[in-house]
Structure formats: structure tokens, C-alpha cells
Amino acid sequence: MADHSHSYPLITGAGNNNVRLFTSNKSATAAAVGTVILTNYGGCQFKDIVFEYITNGTETIEVTGSVDGTNFSAALVPFDVATGLLAADATLSEGSYIIPSTWNFSHYKFTGSSTSDVKTIAFAATVYPR
């Protein structure tokens, strides 16, 4: 499972007092695609959270959330970027999704429906200082 998580300044010379871009990419053939952890960067807030699900097949994914990394919610239903509405189901097909601002999880776990296709999650959020 590949894990490439980074926090980038949005402007040259940005520090902890400026808005930053957080990215995390997960990819796996296994059903457990990975967990994105929104690290508390000095009490910052994560907003404008989006992710894109890409697969080389037809498998679907589910996303669950946790505030502590141990107790995860039932499958969540994010907004579908294509329609602007909540996804039709918690079982998500390939596409782009927006995590509602009311979800206050620090861990987002992505689980695939099977173990044959490559499943990739490209996750991004803006990090605002408090």
C-alpha cells in the first residue's frame, strides 16, 4: 500500500500562520485501501476536503470516519462532485467527492469492495490556522 501524505504552503514562504494544502494519496489492490490521518498542525482546522476515487476496474469503496483512529463510524455518504448532491449510496463508484464540513473526523478509512482491482484515493484539504 502506497502512502504519500504531505502538507504544502499555498504561497511562497508560508508558515504555520498561513493557509496550507494537505494531500494524501493511497493506493492498493487489497480491500483495505488505507486511512488518511488529518494531523493536528498546531490546532489548525481542515476545510474544503475532497477526494477522488480511481480504479482500473469496477470495484467500489466505502469511507468511514473516526475521531480517535480506533472507533470508526458506519459507511458515510459524501457529496458527489458531478451532481452537487449527496452520493446516491455509501457504496461509492469511481468519481470525485466532497466531505461535508460538518464531519469532524481526524481519520478517514477507505475500504474497497474486493481485492482484484487497483484502487487509488487522491485526498486533498486546505489547512487553516485558528
Low-confidence stretches: none
Supply the helix-strand structural class: mainly beta
- Total helices: the number is 0
Q: List the strand order in the largest sheet.
A: 1-2-9-4-7-6
The average pLDDT value, as a whole number, equals: 86
Q: What percent of the residues sit in helical stretches (DSSP H or I)?
A: under 10%
Task: Please tell me what the overall shape is.
Answer: globular
Largest β-sheet summary: 6 strands, antiparallel
Strand content: over 45%
Order of helices and strands: EEEEEEEEE
State the oligomer: single chain
Q: Rg from C-alpha positions?
A: 15 Å
Q: Termini, distance in Å?
A: 33 Å
**Beta strands, count:** 9
Protein described:
The protein contains no helices and nine strands. With 130 residues, it is mainly β. Strands 1-2-9-4-7-6 form a six-stranded antiparallel beta sheet, with no helix packed on it. Strands 3-8-5 form a three-stranded antiparallel beta sheet, with no helix packed on it. It is globular, with a radius of gyration of 15 Å. The N and C termini lie far apart (33 Å).
Task: Break the fold down into its secondary structure elements and pairings.
Blueprint (H helix, E strand, L loop, with lengths): L1 E8 L10 E9 L3 E6 L7 E11 L5 E6 L12 E2 L14 E4 L8 E6 L6 E10 L2
Antiparallel strand pairs: 1-2, 2-9, 3-8, 4-7, 4-9, 5-8, 6-7
Question: How is this structure best summarized?
Answer:
The chain is mainly beta and 130 residues long. 0% of the residues lie in helices and 48% in strands.
